[in-house]
Amino acid sequence: MLNEFSHVFAYLILSFIFVAGGVMTNMIIRPKNGNTLKLSAYECGEDPIGQSWMKFNIRFYVVALIFILFDVEIVFLFPWALVFKKMGWLAFNEMMVFVAILLVGFAYAWIKGDLDWVRPKPYIAQLDDLISHDIPRLSPRPAPAVEQPILEQA
Fold first, then answer.
1. In CA terms, which of 22, 115, 132, 151 is 20 to 30 Å from 8?
2. Backbone angles phi, psi at 31, to 5 degrees
3. Could you tell me if 33 and 23 are in contact, meaning their C-beta atoms sit under 8 angstroms apart?
4. pLDDT tens profile 51-71
5. Residue 63: which residues within 8 A CB-CB, separation 6 or more?
6. CA pair distance 67, 107, nearest whole angstrom
7. Helix (H) or strand (E) holding 127
8. How far is CA 51 from CA 39, 42, 46, 76, 147, in A?
9. Is the pLDDT of residue 99 over 70?
């Protein structure tokens, strides 16, 4: 019994030596001359503009997640197509419900605008935009003057 666990123990020791050896080799042979271009926030050919902690648009990730979601769900159609004749109308009805749920999700993502790559900038109305300056309007009456009491100085 101890002999069976010795293989696992040897594997763990060899994997630790392999990882530690790779890290040590990297520390020994790597170049140690960093410059400002190498230490910049982005090393991908784009010039960094602004801070590296800025907010960015997550539309890339939303589109990728929607693609993966529907791509994985469509994979379920292939096994169903292979056994459709054997399973009969029950399998057909269940798959139509499944496809209907997928279409509802797709329509929701489409209506919400998550599939639009370039979205129009939202327009935030200002008070001057809501009031037309071309039409003369009655100006408000000035507030009545209130007499201030004169304080007597002693």
1. 22
2. -75, 145
3. no
4. 667 676 777 788 888 888 888
5. 114, 115, 117
6. 14
7. helix 127-130
8. 14, 11, 14, 44, 57
9. yes
- What domains appear along the chain, each with residue ranges and CATH number? 60-117 (1.20.58.1610)
- Which is nearest to 63 in space by CA: 122, 8, 101, 119? 119
**Each residue's pLDDT tens digit, 18-42:** 999 999 999 999 877 777 767 666 6
The pLDDT confidence band at residue 154, using thresholds 50, 70 and 90, is low
Q: Where are the alpha helices (DSSP H) in 40-117?
A: 59-75, 77-87, 89-112
Separation CA 46–CA 48 (nearest Å): 6
The pLDDT score that the predictor gives to residue 22 is 95
Q: What is the DSSP letter of 124?
A: -
- CA–CA distances in Å: residue 57 to residues 61, 62, 116: 9, 10, 13
The structure tokens listed for 75 are 């994979």
Distance, CA of 40 to CA of 48 (rounded, Å): 8
pLDDT at 113: 81
